[in-house]
Amino acid sequence: MRDNFVRQLSELARTDPRIFLMTADLGFKVLDGFAEEFPNQYLNVGIAEQNMIGLATGMAMQGRIVFCYSIGNFSTLRCLEQIRNDACYHEANVKVVAVGGGFSYGPLGISHHATEDLAIMRALPNMTIAVPGDQWEAREATKALAATPGTCYLRLDKSPAPATARAKEVFYIGKARTIREGSDITLIATGGILGPTLEAADSLVEQGIACRVISMHTIKPFDSEAVLKACRETGGIVTVEEHTIHGGLGSLVAETCMDAGVKPSVFRRIGLRAGFSSIVGAQEYLRREYGMDPKAIAKAVAELVSAGSPHAPRPRLRVSSGGTA
Amino acid sequence: MEQNTAPRIQPIADAPPSAELALRIRKHAVRMTNLGGSSHVGSVLSMADIVAVLYGGILRVDPSNPDRPDRDRFILSKGHAGAGIYAALAETGFFSTDLLEKHCADGSVLSGHVSHRGVPGVELSTGSLGHGLSVGAGMAYASKLDKLDNRAFVLLSDGECDEGSTWEAAMFAAHHKLDNLIAIVDYNKIQSLAPVAETLQLEPFADKWKAFGWSVAEIDGHDHNLLYTHLSSVPRAKGKPSCVIAHTTKGKGVSFMERSVLWHYRTPRGSEYDEALNELNSDS
Q1: B168–A53: do the CB atoms touch at under 8 Å?
Q2: A221: closest CA of chain B, how far (Å)
Q3: pLDDT of amino acid A175
Q4: Number of domains forming the structure of chain B
Q5: What is the pTM of this model?
Q6: Are A103 and A51 in the same domain?
Q7: In what order do the strands lie in the sheet with A218-220?
Q8: Is residue A100 part of a domain?
């Protein structure tokens, strides 16, 4: 995804001199092409993320659109107060970019596991948050955030889903994408975990369960309508995020339903439940370890569906059935 | 990105003389902290002369058009002294002095720590220390790229130099030869709970800035002639950011507030309030 981000940003930088890319000394080989092509639109500020966001705010106040690139927690948590006070409060055109969402850098340890960033960024006012699930979304989100005034967060992932875009599809910030239709239950995923989610949905067809799958590529502003519609039409909701279950996508979906008084018949948040992910391993390994690989997702969904409607041979859920799960 | 507009922007033509402006800032500070029941009067009094010289004759800003792209940028990084910058802006025509009565009041935009929302002339909202120099460096860097000749002035507190982010910005500014960036440190020797020297020693302070690649002057931060001379001759060295370490007295101008840790937080009330204003009035 990061390559597609850089490719898209290069395209933008060619025609828009306001586009500027900063890195806090990360992006080995990834940013070289950009740096070479746009020497006046690129800067490695050194390993100083707080300074990076402050600088970006100052430059944004003088007319630039500044993308600040680093790994997961470094471009978000390390400089959280600069993002809040400097960028967000001043509605500065600062685009925080984190590569390595979730367990992308699994073997490197908890310092590199970005598993609370969405919850924390979500709490900030004046913040737009995009979490693309596949390569197409990564490019489209980059383009869209560049055109969105104010402070934004772009969370990229090393393990994107297979291509999901339809011919001539248009991407909108804040508008969820229904990747596959289904009437038994809805799986809502954000980020690259969309891939395993789609695989799970595929495997569930054999069990007679038709899943709707939604790519929630924008966390803020949130497409509440897509969630409520899914609730009404498919009954059950399962959220899937490579992130703590506290405060991320799952929480957001639950809040949305409660606020609207629309109750899913069954509901499950799939995400990191453990404290710190102190066990290391490849992204796929950690997804298995923490119950968010295709098999675990499918198992959880199948259990929910049967719990939601235990006597039906081919379970179909409806909100009006009372949701006794 | 921004184009220089003609005619060239100048310091505020009808600003009060800096000595008069400094006195008014001090009186406002005492009144505002009294009315608002707020803190940090000592921090405003220590920087009043610096701010008065800046707005009285150095900063190229336009009160009738606060967002003019070619203006100098001024950042109060020691945001807790917000009352002082609000007073300076009101006294130089950015908004009515009547608004100052609302400092820290319910429903007011004039927060204790400086905020830009609804306050013309405030470039950056601060209050958490260690933010301002980075933003100022970003502005200065953008101006260099755009070949603009405006400057970014950042006023820091001494205690704020405990923050590592201040030094991240200091290193950056020198590396990128931002000679359009000027840091002024209000070195009043007292931080929140105790004297600086007892909390976290900054000395050798000038040497630190020099080692980071800045051109440094140490001056009496209450001497308007010296302040004017040094702040009007920047950059001090071509290709280097300038640092003016202004030695000041916390609480300057009110005898019982001077050099007192207490008056970092204490609100002037009752007889203390009257006495403070009397002392300042006898200066005029």
Answers
A1: no
A2: 23
A3: 98
A4: 1
A5: 0.94
A6: yes
A7: A42-44, A19-23, A65-71, A94-99, A151-155, A127-130, A218-220
A8: yes
